[in-house]
Write a sequence for this structure.
């Protein structure tokens, strides 16, 4: 199929873009990488009257470290997240997660901002952002605001961004010493959406106790899910095999999957959440001990 007709804009600045969003509101869609938007337009599941292409706006693909944060422009491609030395050093969980997204074509065109704004519960980067306690910065014609990862994902394909807002930047804390990370993904075949995905990041003190735990889940709820019970099972305790098993069991309870005829039953997804959380925490612990 082909999309319905639309009016196309290619602004050269954030200000021009937000002016267009103010004028057209919910009748407009932002085109970043287009890896999600174009397919749903071709299927006519989305039919915007106005398409605003932000690929011509300079500066939205910046990568820089400022203080204790890594600041990532919304137009940064998945391939850049995967391969950037800065990202690998400062936020390796994002780099590892990006390597699991789709296929090379998707990673070369898809963007971090577009992925997060799309708010797909099977999206990989949302789980990583939750595990990192990240945030996004948005702009509209009249104001700027910061939205935490915990507040960003409202429902399936529904984010906290207003119809007149543009996501311009993603911020995550820089990796601390004695910290480890992992993204574990179960998929039917290479490049598929997740059956289950688990993003983990942990930090240890000098005695081997867990002082930080972040766990984000993919494809086991109406949005990406932060596994709060699992995190609580880790923080303040020695991070050993017993604690990891208890946390993985808690993560299974944090999940709220639905029956999926393509990717498994509720029971199967809960069990795989447990398995992949245990694997992820084990690897994260190994990495933390080496840092």
């Amino acid at each position: 199929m082909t999309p319905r007709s639309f009016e196309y804009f290619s602004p050269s600045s954030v200000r021009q873009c937000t002016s267009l969003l103010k004028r057209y509101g919910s009748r407009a869609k932002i085109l970043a990488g287009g890896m999600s938007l174009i397919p749903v337009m071709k299927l006519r599941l989305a039919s915007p009257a106005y398409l605003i292409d932000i690929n011509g706006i300079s500066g939205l693909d910046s990568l820089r470290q400022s203080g204790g944060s890594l600041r990532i422009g919304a137009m940064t491609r998945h391939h850049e997240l995967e391969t950037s030395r800065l990202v690998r050093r400062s936020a390796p969980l994002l780099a590892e997660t990006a390597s699991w997204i789709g296929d090379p074509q998707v990673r070369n065109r898809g963007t971090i901002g577009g992925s997060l704004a799309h708010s797909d519960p099977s999206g990989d980067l949302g789980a990583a952002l939750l595990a990192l306690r990240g945030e996004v910065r948005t702009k509209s014609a009249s104001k700027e605001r910061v939205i935490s990862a915990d507040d960003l994902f409202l429902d399936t394909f529904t984010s906290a961004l207003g119809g007149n807002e543009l996501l311009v930047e993603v911020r995550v804390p820089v990796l601390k010493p004695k910290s480890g990370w992992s993204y574990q993904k179960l998929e039917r075949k290479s490049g598929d959406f997740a059956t289950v995905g688990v993003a983990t990041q942990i930090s240890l003190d000098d005695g081997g106790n867990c002082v930080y735990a972040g766990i984000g889940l993919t494809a086991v709820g109406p949005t990406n899910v932060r596994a709060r019970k699992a995190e609580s099972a880790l923080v303040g305790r020695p991070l050993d095999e017993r604690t990891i098993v208890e946390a993985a069991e808690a993560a299974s309870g944090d999940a709220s999957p639905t029956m999926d005829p393509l990717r498994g039953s509720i029971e199967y997804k809960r069990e795989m959440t447990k398995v992949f959380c245990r694997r992820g925490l084990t690897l994260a612990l190994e990495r933390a001990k080496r840092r």
In short: The longest helix spans residues 266-290. The CA atoms of residues 94 and 135 lie 13 Å apart. The two ends are 52 Å apart (CA to CA).
